[in-house]
Design goal:
441 residues; 0% strand; disordered N terminus
């Protein structure tokens, strides 16, 4: 089994490294200098599979302005909106964050703005560190593979690639025990399309440590575990797709690794990517699961669709190269929003899969930690930590690693009143009569 997974890991990392279709792009200076002047699409793409022909319907100017004003009002009273009117915040994220305000919104939703403000000079300090040559060499080789058709990253050694290098190197210094994972590069690149390098760094920290903890650690155990959770959820959501994948023994890690680890940034049309990220920052990993399930329903959820993919090879080709024209933004968001996959369901399924893992494979190398499910969970964690800190009687707070990735420690999880769900990371809490977290669709 381990030998088999080792080969899968190599295949997966090759896929994540961008070899193939986009790997032989316009990524060198000579090629770029030789190109005729070409207009980018409204997202900054010069071409490639994620280039938009401008067919997306544009929002009327007056409607766009009204949305901007509503978001600016939320920014001015952010904590109150999250604590008292979170359902409205969530609804507005689902409608799509105005492009002019997306950078600030993502930082507030993820709480990376607070990390940035509370750690002045930290990013520059990390940059000044020498870094591990092993990671720096891999990062250097990966730079030209990240969105090579985007105007920011097309030129070798251009400002986009330089900033990407700065962010990825800083993270290897910040978390040397984790180092660098190739799937972090496209995630960091998406952030850099919207914000300066220092802001993107703290946002990346929150994704790696709060939203998707363990995803980018050696061994890929966290993504394997979520693959098992995902496959079990698929049996509920779309039995037809589940039976097809099971029939051909197509392991979840073969198709969902790039989806989940890159938060669909290399999979969907760009308008869809931005809408998914808006919801992801607000609602957490639940959105990633839902998008993946919706894609499988769309690709494998009918008899007609299955006639087109009558073997393992055809199925894998379909899932690795989803036709952009088959994914419509409004329809995708509608399906994602209406899918009955909640935080509590994911956590219950996680508990089951961890138990099965331990029975069949033994103990996990990297102990899973409780992920925080989006803005409300992060806000409540922060509020409780602040209340405890102001009380001054909990010495264990000193063990939370600065600058405070919002990862719940076992001590904090054992406190009465902390939001609980039945996960393998909170078994001690069950003795206290804990209940699952409140979660609406």
């Amino acid at each position: 089994l381990m030998k088999s997974f080792s080969s899968l890991s190599i295949w997966t990392l090759e896929s994540l490294s961008g070899l193939g279709e986009d790997g032989s792009s316009i990524g060198s200076d000579s090629e770029i200098n030789g190109l005729a002047v070409r207009r980018t699409d409204k997202y900054g793409f010069l071409g490639g599979t994620q280039y938009s022909e401008g067919s997306d319907k544009d929002i009327r100017v007056d409607v766009a302005r009204q949305r901007e004003l509503k978001w600016l009002d939320m920014f001015n009273n952010w904590d109150k909106w999250v604590s008292r009117r979170f359902q409205k915040v969530k609804l507005r994220c689902r409608k799509g964050i105005p492009s002019s305000l997306r950078a600030k919104a993502w930082q507030l939703l993820s709480n990376s703005k607070e990390l940035l403000d509370s750690n002045p000079g930290k990013f520059e300090e990390l940059e000044r560190e020498q870094g591990d040559p092993k990671w720096l060499d891999i990062i250097e080789k990966d730079l030209h593979r990240q969105f090579p058709f985007h105007e920011m990253f097309a030129a070798r050694g251009g400002h986009g690639q330089q900033d990407l290098y700065r962010v990825l190197k800083a993270y290897t210094v910040y978390r040397p025990e984790e180092g660098y994972c190739q799937a972090q590069a496209p995630v960091a690149a998406v952030l850099l399309m919207h914000m300066p390098a220092e802001h993107a760094f703290w946002c990346l920290v929150q994704i790696c440590e709060t939203y998707l903890p363990g995803y980018y650690s050696a061994g890929l155990e966290a993504i394997q575990l979520d693959g098992e959770i995902f496959f079990s959820l698929l049996r509920r959501v779309c039995p037809m797709a589940y039976r097809h994948l099971k029939k051909f023994k197509i392991d979840p890690i073969l198709y969902m690794t790039e989806w989940f680890m890159c938060v669909f940034s290399r999979t969907l049309p760009w308008s869809c990517v931005l809408r998914v990220w808006d919801m992801f920052f607000c609602e957490g990993v639940k959105i990633v699961f839902r998008v993946g399930l919706v894609l499988l329903k769309q690709m494998l959820g009918s008899v007609d669709k299955l006639r087109e993919v009558q073997g393992m090879y055809e199925t894998m080709e379909r899932l690795r190269n989803i036709p952009p024209e088959s994914v419509r933004e409004d329809l995708l968001v509608q399906e994602v929003v209406s899918l009955a996959v909640t935080e509590a369901l994911i956590e219950r399924e996680c508990s089951i899969q961890v138990r099965k893992w331990r029975e069949s494979r033994g103990e996990l190398t990297h102990q899973p930690v409780r992920r925080l499910h989006g803005t409300r969970d992060i806000h409540e964690h922060k509020r409780r930590a602040s209340a405890i800190s102001s009380g001054g009687s909990f010495s264990f707070l000193g063990s939370i690693p600065p600058p405070g990735p919002l990862r719940a420690s076992s001590s904090l999880l054992s406190l009465p009143g902390f939001r609980k769900s039945k996960t393998p990371f909170q078994e001690a809490e069950e003795k206290n009569g804990a209940t699952a977290p409140r979660d609406s669709a």
